[in-house]
TrEMBL record:
Residues 2-21 form the 23S rRNA (guanine(745)-N(1))-methyltransferase N-terminal domain. It holds the Pfam family Methyltransf_31. PANTHER family: METHYLTRANSFERASE, METHYLTRANSFERASE TYPE 11 DOMAIN-CONTAINING PROTEIN. Residues 72-184 form the Methyltransferase domain. This is 23S rRNA methyltransferase RlmA. The gene is rlmA. S-adenosyl-L-methionine binds at residues 42, 80-81, 168. GO terms for molecular function: methyltransferase activity. Keywords: Methyltransferase, S-adenosyl-L-methionine, Transferase. One of its GO terms (biological process) is methylation. It comes from Vibrio halioticoli NBRC 102217. The lineage of its organism: Bacteria, Pseudomonadati, Pseudomonadota, Gammaproteobacteria, Vibrionales.
């Protein structure tokens, strides 16, 4: 038996399974990400992702929406639930939407804010779901274990991933690295799944009043930025930066 926290989430991470006291993203990273996401610069991704999930479930042989059965969707490494919530909004009451993250602070925030989803503190390396119980798994910049994805997806179920496109955050990265290496565009391969659709989303963001600093703080290269650059971005009135995402849909073979 697991207790439900007062915010409504369940903690499925036994203390002895944790490698650190507070695994996953820190409170500071979570807060920067939250502040940045609130600014709406990733809203296009949020909407396109939710529509992709809806479409892929509608087309899925596992469980089309017309079926009377409720489709079940899991967002792994969901952070504070920004995408999870939109997926639940778009699918409406026809679906059960779950979000899971190893960082308790993020899950606590998500479950306080989004009552339309079920959240848990757990690891994406050991998913707390039955074999072949999920119609879709969503993975936005989050780690995963292939065997677990395959174990939990229903036959014909789908995996929707978001990965950085070649030019993602180019203007920020060129301020940090002498030579910017473009991200690899090759879609990841997952054993037992076939890639059925790939979409690109590229647009320019005008970051105002310190938003460039919040964006920096939520990236893995934050610690590479010099204190001078950090101070400059904090003060920066306007900074133009590209967002470039790849959205891939895979289906269980
Ligand atoms: C880059 S963030 C992305 C968060 C969210 N999907 C988004 O895009 O806003 C990666 C997330 O994965 C979580 N994470 C890291 N290792 C994990 C694991 N083993 N199991 C579940 N979540 C994990 C982190 O705590 C963090 O919230």
């Amino acid at each position: 038996m697991f207790d439900k926290a007062k915010e409504g989430y369940v903690n499925l991470m036994p203390a002895h399974h944790k490698h650190s006291k507070n695994p996953g993203d820190s409170k500071e990273m979570m807060q920067s990400r939250r502040a940045f996401l609130e600014s709406g610069h990733y809203q296009k991704l949020q909407q396109q992702l939710a529509n992709t999930v809806q479409q892929s479930i509608a087309n899925s042989i596992a469980n089309p929406l017309e079926n009377s059965q409720q489709p079940t969707i899991l967002d792994i490494g969901c952070g504070e639930g920004y995408y999870t919530n939109e997926i639940a909004n778009v699918l409406g009451e026809s679906a059960q939407v779950y979000g899971l993250d190893i960082a308790k602070v993020a899950v606590r925030y998500a479950s306080k804010r989004y009552a339309n989803c079920h959240f848990s503190v757990a690891s994406s390396y050991k998913l707390p779901f039955n074999d072949h119980s999920l119609d879709a798994i969503v993975k936005v910049y989050a780690p995963s274990k292939q065997e677990e994805l395959l174990r939990c997806l229903k036959p014909g179920g789908v995996l929707v991933t978001v990965t950085p496109g070649a030019r993602h955050l180019y203007q920020l990265r060129e301020r940090i690295y002498q030579e910017v290496r473009l991200h690899e565009e090759q879609a990841d391969e997952f054993a037992g799944l076939e890639l059925i659709e790939q979409a690109k989303l590229n647009y320019s963001m005008q970051l105002v009043e310190g938003q460039a600093f919040e964006l920096l703080q939520m990236t893995p290269f934050a610690w590479k930025a010099s204190p001078e650059l950090q101070a400059e971005l904090k003060q920066c009135a306007s900074f133009d930066c590209e967002a470039d995402f790849n959205i891939q849909t895979y289906r269980v073979i």
